[in-house]
Amino acid sequence: MRTSFIETLVQVAERDPRVWLLTGDLGYSVLEKFSSKFPDRYLNAGVAEQNMVGVAAGLAMTGKVVFVYSIANFPTLRCLEQVRNDVCYHNLSVKIVAVGCGLAYGGHGYTHHGVEDLGVMSLLPHMTVMAPGDPVETRWATRTLVDKSGPGYLRLGKAGEPIVHQGEPTFEFGKAVQVVDGTQATLISTGGMLETAVRVANILAARRVSIRVLSMPTLRPFDAERVVVEAKRTGKIITLEEHGPGGLGTLVGECLAQAGLGVRFVPLRLQPEPTLCAGSQAYLCGRHGLSLERIVEVVESVAD
Amino acid sequence: MTTDTIKLAQTIRGHALRMIAKAKASHVGSCLSMADLLAVLYGSHLRVDPNNPRWPERDRLIVSKGHGAAILYAVLAERGFFPVADLITYSQDGSPLTGHVSHHVPGVELSTGSLGHGLPVGCGLALAHGRPHAPREEIVTRSVTSTVPRTFVIVSDGELDEGSNWEAILFAGHHKLDSLTALVDYNKIQSFGSVKDVLDLEPLTDKWRDFGWTVIAIDGHDHDAIQAALHADHAGKPKVILAHTIKGKGVAYMEDQLAWHYKSPDAKQLAEALAGLGCGQ
After folding, report:
1. A50 and B CB contact within 8 Å
2. Vertex B189: Cα angle to B184 and B190 (nearest 5)
3. Bridge partners of A65?
4. How would residue B280 be classed by pLDDT, with cut points 50, 70 and 90?
5. Which residues does A41 contact at the CB level (< 8 Å), separation at least 6?
6. Domains contained in chain A, number
């Protein structure tokens, strides 16, 4: 996803001189693609995220579209008030890019786990929140954030995520995308869990259980309309995200409650307690009850 | 010119007192200490156009000590950004003149209130207006006669406790942002005590200088000194004006009194203050 992001940003910056990129001293072997081409629109702001976001706001006040890059919680939680006051209150085109979200930096420990970011960013005024599910969605989300004025948040994994979408599906801003058709239950995924969601559907298809899979690359604005349609169609909703409470599951739950739909609803997500041990992303997901086997089990029981 | 700005300073002190008294609001002492800085900036220094507040080539002023809103609104109204008659709605139900600085007021660049936000944003503005399309070593230095939009940020002394300011001070020095001027309203009293007792800033001149800034220390109530400091050349470096001020300046019973960070004057106290300033009631 990182690679798709930076390659797309370079392409966009070639034709759009408003595009700038700031980093909080991170992005080795990733950002050079941009910095070497546009040295006058690139800046390493140092390990100083509060200042970096303030600087980004100042640049954006003069009409620039400023991407701010760092990992996990550093461009969001560390400088949350700058994002809220300087960027969102003033409705400025500053786009926060966090790489390695979820448990991608598994072994690095809880300080590096971005597991509250979607909830926190979703609460902020004017904020567009995007969590693409594969490199194809990442390219679309990056272009979309440049086109949409105002604050944006782009949640990325690390590198090497597989391509899920074949070809270039038609994405619509603020709308869910159907990835797998099915009838017995709807599995809604956001971010890098998309591949897992498709694998779950494929495994269950072999057992003659028909699961519809939707990808939700945009969380703000939220496609509540589609959630209601799906709830009425399949009557069973499961959400899947590498994030704690406050993210996709919370948004879907609120939506179902407001619509007065008493459908079966199971949010699959991380536990809110800090992860205390080292481990790979897959291992730690398993500790949180999000192993492939466990997800298959839950989805199958809901669909039955 | 100085006579005009001195008169402007007294006028906006009067407005701020009336606004704060009517609203029973706080922070009057913080407003009065920076009245002279604002009067010189808006009265004779800033290139701004009240008829076109968003003019792209304008100078930018950020008041980072957002609790000093009343006196900023007062000087903007006197400068013609909006009617002086609106000032008395300050902090009243439904008024755009909120108790901390709001960018929904004509002429205001940045909403502030939480401290430590203005200087980083000022760095971004200065970078946008001043960054050369060349490596840092080749920065084209500018003087005060330049037509590049300039950025000014007023920060309080207590506000310098915030780490974000020191990130910005390091950044501006490193990038030689010489279209940026910071002004410290150094009135020596912060929210719950004297600056010296809470977190001593001294030696403050040395700190800024060591971070790569041109430092000028002045009496922040001396209009000639403020003018001279604003005009002082700082090519190749950002500039900071350490303006030694008195909290509550201009109202004898408020001067150097922590209590006037919170209290608002009653009718009798207001009348006494206005009379002392030579302002109408």
Report:
1. yes
2. 85
3. A19
4. confident
5. A13, A17, A19, A20, A21
6. 2
Q: Is residue A15 part of a domain?
A: yes
Task: Determine, for residues A46 and B110 on separate chains, whether the beta-carbon distance falls below 8 Å.
Answer: no
Tokens for B247, please give them. 């909290």
Tell me whether A57 touches chain B (CB under 8 Å): yes
Tokens of A45: 């702001």
Same domain, residue pair A100 and A190: no
3-state secondary structure of B21: helix
Residues of A in contact with B122 (CB under 8 A): 58
| Chain A / chain B CB contacts < 8 angstroms | 91
Q: How far is A140 from chain B, CA to nearest CA, in Å?
A: 28
| Beta strands, E only, A62-158 | 65-71, 94-99, 128-130, 152-155
Strands laid side by side in the A65-71 sheet: A42-44, A19-23, A65-71, A94-99, A152-155, A128-130, A218-220
The CATH classification number of B2-277 equals: 3.40.50.970
Residues spanned by the domain of A37: 2-155
For helices A248-258 and A224-234, the axis angle rounded to 10 degrees is 70
Q: Which residues contact B50 (CB under 8 A, 6 or more apart)?
A: B79, B80, B81, B106, B107
ipTM of the complex: 0.96
CB proximity A45 to B under 8 Å: yes
Write down the mean pLDDT value for chain B: 94
Distance CA A146, CA B108 (A): 27
Check which CATH number belongs to the domain holding A291 and give it. Answer: 3.40.50.920
Q: Which residues of B touch A48 (CB under 8 A)?
A: 167, 170-171
Report the residue from B109, B111, B171 with minimal CB separation from A48: B171
pLDDT tier for residue B132 given thresholds of 50, 70 and 90? very low
Per-residue exposure over B158-182, b if at least 16 CB sit within 10 Å of its own CB, e if not: bbbbbebbbbbbbbbbebbbbbbbb
